[in-house]
Description:
single chain; 257 residues; alpha/beta; TIM Barrel; globular; disordered N terminus; binds 2-phosphoglycolic acid; isomerase; EC 5.3.1.1; Triosephosphate isomerase; gluconeogenesis
Amino acid sequence: xxxxxxxxxxxxxxxxxxxxxxxxxxxxxxxxxxxxxxxxxxxxxxxxxxxxxxxxxxxxxxxxxxxxxxxxxxxxxxxxxxxxxxxxxxxxxxxxxxxxxxxxxxxxxxxxxxxxxxxxxxxxxxxxxxxxxxxxxxxxxxxxxxxxxxxxxxxxxxxxxxxxxxxxxxxxxxxxxxxxxxxxxxxxxxxxxxxxxxxxxxxxxxxxxxxxxxxxxxxxxxxxxxxxxxxxxxxxxxxxxxxxxxxxxxxxxxxxx
Length: 257
Ligand code: PGA
């Protein structure tokens, strides 16, 4: 598979626990059709596991890429209900979302587990999309900088810079996910700077400036352009708005540069 360029504009659709395989095929076909073979930026679809194989058949031969929504740190073994890096790779995935706040909340994933998953993804040749972000309480109490620094440092400390640059980060304030309450471009910009500064400290000087950092949380076709107008914002991780082809492709078009 062709390597993807450094710091590309990237828009990933996280379909979460939505769409049966049949419904996913219909959505993927609409997206392929709307993009018409020439996506304006890197576009990654992350359907549920049960739809990966059928969506793969739809995106084969197009520039659209496929990602898993999670992976287990181990390659195989007695882990009922889990999915491994090699399984995702075998289904044509090039990406895997790691540390999404819904999994941190629902499955009690902590920083240490997220760090293991990040490394597992890299080991298997997947680009992890590593999610970090503060809760509303943390923001209101002024703890956003330390929360982001803690999450990024825990995930990245000890990585070689080339490994860190093979990942994608996503700043996803928990209070913005699925709420319709999008961060302002200035809030995103400030948080992305914090993320990049922490990467410099955790991995090495200059890594932050070269890392791809997405914003996620209530991104829509209407607000995407104002977020992408900030140099710090390299694209978006999109939930709800990725379930509707036309709006999702408009977000990708806004990210193109
Ligand atoms: P949302 O989800 O776009 O529906 O807010 C974003 C995400 O969870 O990645």
